[in-house]
Amino acid sequence: MKAIIINSIVIIIGGSILLSCIQKTTYSSPIGYDFTKPVKYNMPAELNEISGITFNKGKSDRVYAESDGIGRVFYFRPGDKTVKYTEFKENGDFEDIAISGSQVIMLQSKGVLFTIPLSEIGKPQTTNLQKNKDILPEGEYESMYANDAGEVYVLCKHCTMDKTSKKSSGFIFQLAADGTVKKTGDFSVNVKHIEELLGVDKISFHPSALTRNPLNNDWYILSSVNKILVVADAKWKIRHVYKLDQNLFTQPEGITFDDQNNLYISNEGHVPQPGNILKFPYKKQ
Question: In angstroms, what CA-CA distances link 30 with 26, 27, 103, 145, 259?
Answer without folding.
Answer: 14, 10, 31, 20, 18
